[in-house]
# Entry
Amino acid sequence: MSQPLEILISALLLLGGAFVLVGSIGLARLPDIFMRLHGPTKATTLGIGGIIIALLIHESVMAGGPRLQELAISLFLFITAPVTAHLLSKAALRQLRGRQANERDQSSAGASQRGKTPAGDGSSTPV
# Structure
């Protein structure tokens, strides 16, 4: 294998590893679910993509052409990562809206309880 090709493969591996590291740190450090989705979906997918491209180049040179396994891995990665992020964000949004609706219901129930008199008939001024 030629030296420029080895340099290209090494650069892609290092760049991919750096993106995976940044994505993993973002996953661990960002405060809420919606911000945490950016780590694995953006940076980590790009990092794994760089590593797989380096693997494709290496296997193309060493084995005489890219193998089906590397192509299948890259296709699977780039299709499933955005779909997974979309489904996770929809589930988190649904859970957040449900929580907000419960809080709203509880606060309106509390407000109606505050408007009643000690006798409970609600006919006089609030206490």
Q: What stands out?
A: Residues 3-110 form one domain. The longest helix spans residues 68-114.
